[in-house]
Amino acid sequence: MKISANQTKNSLFQKIEQVRHRQGKVRDSHITLAHGSGGKAMRDLIDDIFVSNFDNPILSQLEDQASLNLASLMQQGDRLALTTDSYVVDPLFFPSSDIGELAINGTVNDLAVSGAKPLYLTCSVILEEGLPVETLRRVAASMKKAALKAGIKIVTGDTKVVHRGAADKLFINTAGVGVIPKEVNISAHNIQPGDLVIINGELGNHGAAILIARGELALETNIESDCQPLHDLVETILKVCPDIHAMRDATRGGLATVLNEFALSSQVGIRINEESIPVREEVKGVCEILGLDPLYLANEGKLVVVVGQENAENVLSAMKSHPSGKNACIIGEVIPSPPGIVLLKTAFNAERIVDMLVGEQLPRIC
Amino acid sequence: MKISANQTKNSLFQKIEQVRHRQGKVRDSHITLAHGSGGKAMRDLIDDIFVSNFDNPILSQLEDQASLNLASLMQQGDRLALTTDSYVVDPLFFPSSDIGELAINGTVNDLAVSGAKPLYLTCSVILEEGLPVETLRRVAASMKKAALKAGIKIVTGDTKVVHRGAADKLFINTAGVGVIPKEVNISAHNIQPGDLVIINGELGNHGAAILIARGELALETNIESDCQPLHDLVETILKVCPDIHAMRDATRGGLATVLNEFALSSQVGIRINEESIPVREEVKGVCEILGLDPLYLANEGKLVVVVGQENAENVLSAMKSHPSGKNACIIGEVIPSPPGIVLLKTAFNAERIVDMLVGEQLPRIC
Fold first, then answer.
1. Please, what is the average pLDDT of chain B?
2. Where do transmembrane segments lie in this chain (chains A, B) (predicted)?
């Protein structure tokens, strides 16, 4: 790289020509530490894999931050929603989905459940040295597809590479920004006795699909992850009823965790009916074999909606009219007491407490 | 957890009393997979370590997203700045700083260099099973302190735990939101021939400090990381001159990388003078021993400012008046040709090309 003082100007200009022939392409087959250096290899990786896939004018500026017009955000509502999630799912690819789609939909859904229109995402990856570049390409292509479907733009990002063994293949963080419309006020603190609890379909498919995909069980099933964006279903719901009290997607920790969070935040009781909770037979089977409870199994496209009794039928039929809600059903009700507690009415007409998950059912599920 | 149908109501209520005695405290000495479960252990960890340290009314809502008033954002400017970085620095603690402070200042600085006032952060952690809880407490306390200093609020977050060996101790992602004042228009694309390049102080301290902290060299020095927030220095600069052309903090890849990015984005040449670039003698020594170039060494508190010649003296004296800029100096100038190329005028009056970093000098520097 160094040119000593006695070299001619001519050789300096030759060097300049060489430097200018930057490819903007990754030529390595595997990720190396150089891809996280901040230098040329990293820039090529970003150009070739991220900028080309996530193609939009804000990202392609390659500034260290995206700049978003506030006036146009304000036209869409009065509050900014901001959220973040890191995705460490293992394996990276699983039936019907992968970590890339998950990293988009998971954050889109955390925005959507506030009633926000999801607008912008950041994308930060931590790569293990030795990861096949082709794997990263597949994941980025999947993110591109999911972002298009969700109508969200990836506008800024970061790339880090760690030594072999210092991370497992690939972790993705996405942070999301959306705008909440004026009339919407959804919060886990708004729940009142008498409200009804609605869910948009079968529980536990994502958790069961990951479990099967790990290949530790000698089971063959056709269970697929339910990974999907929920923003459009939420929009459909808000059109018929802006007055949704609480809404959350039941991911890690499952339905049980969301309901416990609701009960604690609003200091109400929630009673659900075992018989009305939809779970696929195959998922029940997997749970029975492994001693798991579908109430705690992860989902990646399941919406839990709490709404006043007077609006429940309206919301339910709007949900059923949407492809992501066609199996929607009412699964329980909010009761004044015991506050902070979720009760399950079993098929045998007994009641048991559905506590927050103690211990861990299934690590690296998302 | 299960209560069979023939148990009395009485025992159900006893159970309720037990469930209610949630501590909101972490009692384990080390991180377990349960701390990433979405369940009770995770909630206790979040309450005890994150919510208590980052204490603010938005975060303590514990919704899946923070909700920020758009009208009050608009009072501060016309554009939202959005940025993200993952921090994987090794070791977690190093002379005068740590990964927690770095995760705040790094993202604060990526906002600040756009001219934005940094306002809100997200915080997402990936923890390795077995990490001492005390380590996480130290890091969170450090984040709290840095966030206070930078005047920024951590308003939402995420916690994931992976198996022992699937990550190295602790990774942090922060995404940041700030607001850019109306009159400010800073971009790597705005640079013009004749502009001058100013830096706020000595190069390479962070990179050298990390290198020494790894203990692989039998060197004893008093080199400390320069990790610091730059928002206040930037504000001081913008007060005397809103018309800054380009500004970036020289982190991973060092000064050389930032200047190459500038030269490429604006299609100009940049010529810097080796003799005017401030580098501590100890850092020069470390570089000589290891064959490193201080131009590529990482910093975490160094601002590169490109400004029209007519404003340079003004900006320089404003920088010198600020504690984070007292060693500020002009290090080079922008030239029309060769476009996209950075040249270094050496002490011997020769010229060499300062290319983008090829390969990797020092992995996991930030």
1. 93
2. none
Which of A67, A114, A166 is the closest to B63 by Cβ? A114
Question: Does a structural domain hold residue A61?
Answer: yes
Question: How far apart (Å, rounded) are the C-alpha atoms in residues B209 and B221?
Answer: 9
Nearest chain B residue to A73 by CA distance is B70
- B193, exposed or middle or buried, with CB in 10 Å at 0-12, 13-18, 19+? middle
B207 and B293, same domain (yes or no)? yes
The share of chain A scoring above pLDDT 70, in percent, equals: 94
Q: Band of the pLDDT at A2, cuts 50, 70, 90?
A: very low
Do residue A91 and residue A152 come from a single domain?
yes
Contacts of B13 in chain A (CB under 8 A): 338
DSSP B60: G
What is the reported pLDDT for A6? 46
Query: Same domain, yes or no, for A75 and A166?
Result: yes
Which segments of chain A are extended strands (E)?
66-69, 79-87, 93-94, 97-98, 117-128, 153-162, 170-180, 196-199, 244-249, 269-273, 303-307, 329-335, 342-345, 351-353
Residue pairs between chains A and B whose CB atoms are closer than 8 Å: 353
Are residues A232 and A339 both part of a single domain?
A: yes
**CB–CB of B156 and A83 under 8 A?**
yes
Quick check: helix, strand or coil at residue B54? coil
CB contact residues (below 8 A), chain A span 210-239, against chain B:
none
* pLDDT band at residue B17 under the 50/70/90 scheme: low
Res. B22 pLDDT band, cuts 50 70 90:
low
User: What confidence category does residue B108 fall into, taking pLDDT thresholds of 50, 70 and 90?
Assistant: very high
Q: What is the pLDDT of residue A359?
A: 82
Per-residue model confidence as pLDDT tens digits over A97-130: 999 999 999 999 999 999 999 999 999 999 999 9
Query: Are B166 and A168 inside 8 Å of each other by CB?
Result: yes
B227 and B146 share one domain: no
A191 domain-assigned: no
**Chain A nearest C-alpha distance from B239 (Å):** 21
* Cα gap B99→B89, rounded to integer Å: 6
* Candidates A39, A156, A252; nearest CB to B38: A252
Q: Taking CB atoms and an 8 Å limit, are A156 and B83 in contact across chains?
A: yes
Partner residue facing A253 (CB), from B38, B78, B363: B38
Which pLDDT belongs to residue A215? 84
Judged by CB atoms closer than 8 Å, whether chains meet at B37 and A85 is answered as no
Residue-range definition of the domain harbouring residue B222: 196-353
Strands of B342-345's sheet in order across: B244-249, B303-307, B196-199, B329-335, B269-273, B342-345, B351-353
